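Ticket opened by: R.M.
Priority: normal
Category: complex prediction / small molecule

The reporter submitted a protein together with 5'-O-[(L-methionyl)-sulphamoyl]adenosine and asked that the result be attached to this ticket for the collaborator who will pick it up next week. Submitted input follows.
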Amino acid sequence: MAKPFYLTTPIYYVNDRPHIGHVYTTVLADVAARFHRMLGEDVYFLTGTDEHGQKVEKAAAARGIAPKALADEVVQNYYDVFGRMGFTHDRFIRTTDADHREVVQARFRQLLETGDIYKATYKGLYSVSDEAFVTETQAKELQAQGLAHQLVELEEETYFFRLSKYGQPLLDFYAAHPAFVQPDFRFNEVKRFVEGGLQDLSISRTSITWGIPVPDDPKHVVYVWFDALLNYLTGAKGQAWPPDLQLVGKDILRFHAVYWPAFLMAMGLELPKAILAHGWWLMGSDKMSKSKGNIVRPDTLLRFGNDAMRYFFMRDMQIGHDREFSFESLMDRLNADLANGLGNLASRSLSMLRRYRDGVVPEGAATDDDDRAAMDQLKIAQNAYFEAARHHDFGGALEHLWAYLRWLDGYIVKAEPWKLAKDPVHAAKLDAVLANLYRALRATALMVAPVMPDLAQALWEDLGLEGRAADRGFQGFEPFSPAPGPVRDPRPLFARIDKEQELKAMEEMSAPSTQEAAAPSAPALDVPPVKEDIDYDTFARTDLRVGLILEAEEVPKSKKLIKMKVDLGFEQRTILGGIKEAYAPADLVGKRVVVVANLAPRALMGIESHGMLLAASDNNSKPYLVAPPDDALPGFIVK
Ligand code: MSP
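Result attached by the on-call engineer:
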């Protein structure tokens, strides 16, 4: 069997539900997979979860459950989101899968036998957050960044991988494969790191138990990165090896471009063809993180539709660089490019074809330089698209395509088809214009198909074409003749987003139902009748706790929301409340409140709220926060 194009994403830790950073990489991989399939290649696409190690062990301990139980729970979120997003991976691997455990143990044994793994005592500094021993240089870097507290002195018996032996072979390999890491500036960082000298790498742990046991020495578990990286080997099942493209975030490039190829060299296996490191989605200039409460979850974006989210991800992120995320730029981008740009062009062109030619596409030979330019520009746009897309720069590819769509707007304005249609003497020119627009839209449907499969298909069908655009592949460009059946009445490809209304809706999702517009003069008490009876057990499912507000700030652009940091005794949470009209942030700090502690988190205005504050009000008045007495401590149960 011919070797497929083998494509991988990182495998995701199961200490948290997926956020847009995780789905971004997978969207990128899915777009690449669909692109290569449309080129006519056989694709094998692997993604999955990284389930062992200290991070997961700790997260499970905090919840009081077994690590595997946590993994089983969190992986469901991944299945759910990846399913809803229609990802086309061929396998979803979990590092707790039995075949993976076998591969890791077999490879560990192989390297023990060849002497590339050996047992010794390690004494030195260990970075808790990276789960890795650090060199003196790295320790200095961390100290300079004020992260010295992450370092601990450790002395333990451990298995080492003889990484030091692979410094020169790696540098030779990099020199022979100048496109091994993309983009170049990241490759340079990798080279500099290796040139700085490599020390042997500890690849077992005795401090944790949640991992794959070292063969014949189960006191040790295999270091989570050795375990995790080998997922690509397990997943390949031999016939797909080696990977053609490995997508990673910039933060895990060193593991993939240094350790991973060194492991493979030691195992005598062929190395991956290319590693593409992308940048990060940032909130403001910050990293997204749970403690900052600024995580954006895929659900918040999926309200605009799956294709729209994919388009935004591909178009707005320049591969390799970081990008600030904002709902406003998201909505601006979708309105400009999808509702206006492509949507408008498609509906104008198809309407004209129906009105002037009963939906039948004319042969339409060029009649003048403008018509010829329209055909030339299409070729140029197509070539530029493929040049960028072959390098997996889908943002660049879309940019070229949209520049061409804008050019076509000018072509229409100049040709004025509505005037041509008035006099049959201009029939040939009108045919040429309509045929050019049709040809452009058909090519566009194919070129956007990897990024927006559903939108592309809708356009394809409106063009009167049969089957699936994606199945037609890029051979579908040619031949143009004979023209197919009549075009359909165009459906709106993308409904324009009302930005103001959308921002308001996001905000209203946050407002408690008792927060109707305040009518200050409302005299009478306006409360609904008491709800139907519930039994005690139903009530007891609500976990109410005393909380202490530590910080409070207004949420920009929101009329109602205040973001608070609330101490619950056992942890601190970010909680949003629709109470801005009633309380100033400064007055909230130091207040005791009652928190619904087990309310599922939800995102409001791009910020995730982990709980809700109880407030009293009738349907017209402002909310009054329910306040426990000062001697009730944070964390106390309210019942
Ligand atoms: N489990 C390791 C990877 C092992 S691969 C053998 C891991 N997991 S992770 O869940 O923390 O991160 C997975 C990927 O998500 C990384 O590539 C990381 O760069 C990416 N992202 C996490 N947050 C991100 C953003 N805010 N923006 C873009 N991608 C980011 O690391």
